[in-house]
Design goal:
By secondary structure, the protein is an alpha+beta fold. It has a domain at about 290-395. The chain is about 40% helix and about 15% strand. The chain has 13 helices and 14 strands. The chain is globular and about 60 Å long. One of its GO terms (molecular function) is DNA binding. This is Winged helix DNA-binding domain-containing protein.
Amino acid sequence: MANVRRRVSAEERRVRAAARLLRGGGEHGGGAGGAEEVVRQLVALHATDPATVYLSVAARLKDPAQAVPLLDMALYGQPATLTRMLAMRRTMFVVERSFAPQVYAAAGRAVAARLRKELLVFLRDGGGWDEAWLDEVEAEVVAALDGRPESSGAELSKLVPRLREQVVVARGKPYEATQNVASRIIRTMAAEGRIERRRPAGSWVSGQFRWANAEPLPEVPGAAARAELVRAWLAAYGPGTEADVKWWTGWTLGDTRAALKAAGAEEVELGGGVTGYVAAGDTAEVVGGSAPAPEVALLPALDPLAMGWRERGWFLPEGSERLFDRSGNIGPTVWWGGEVVGGWAQRADGAVVWRLLADRGAQVAEATGAAAAVLGSAMGSARVTPRFRTPLERELSL
């Protein structure tokens, strides 16, 4: 007799998401105690927008006001326990340093290889420079950073004059432009793990980082690393489909299927007979009574929870298209349990304002107002404008 796959409903998926990925999850009920715990809970923090990292942590801490000092200590303290790196989908993430070798081998190494290939074409076509020239410049960057605590991009360009070289891109086109080589070279070296981002030049919402030489990452076989990354993703985000895993990682279909098999992923059935996967031994039913009581959470644009799956219809309300920009990036969201019920924004005067797209009763509306006040207090004098603005966020921020 063939094995019968257990069916996981959309409601159960929302319960799982609330228990494992929202404030009530983690090792401590009622909120995490530190930034590392949040990162471990979510596998990786989406870091394309610098503010997302801090606000994602704040939403899950026992004390949201501690997000900035706790995360700064984890990222820039001695020793640092978290690090930024380009990885899945050629996107910037914050991961635990202890897990960075696996993430790099599973996704970052391929990203770095593509960036180096593109950089060599950029230098050849724009300035006539070859790989030998690039090797010399990179060696000068490493030497300039050696013994220095950290340097900004501008400081590096003074220390390594060839970083100030310029090239013309799209020559003869209406959008022809001149670019310095510095940003492309520094970005590629960072993607390869040779240098790393340190403290920002400004506040915690700044995207201008200082740089330092990085400790080499231990070598990890790619196949083993992909299996380990899938195990971590399934434990946090499962169930998910093959398409979800392929999208989140940025892998080929072949690598995705091989990793799911190596990870021992178990099949379940999602709505419409779609095959989903959970971590080995995670097929038991999760019901509402076994999860923390639902809470309101205000999550930032590009939060890992909202960006955890390719298919998101099971947690989105009607009218959710206003929460996304034209490229599919999700803006700030209001969550109740494991579902999105609205969106929020910060006005120029610092006030956090919100709108519910799904009616979940007066209790949820009241809790959203209280959560907005807590978030506004935690943000203090900082003003956050998402890098990818959405229709609802724009409207609320006026």
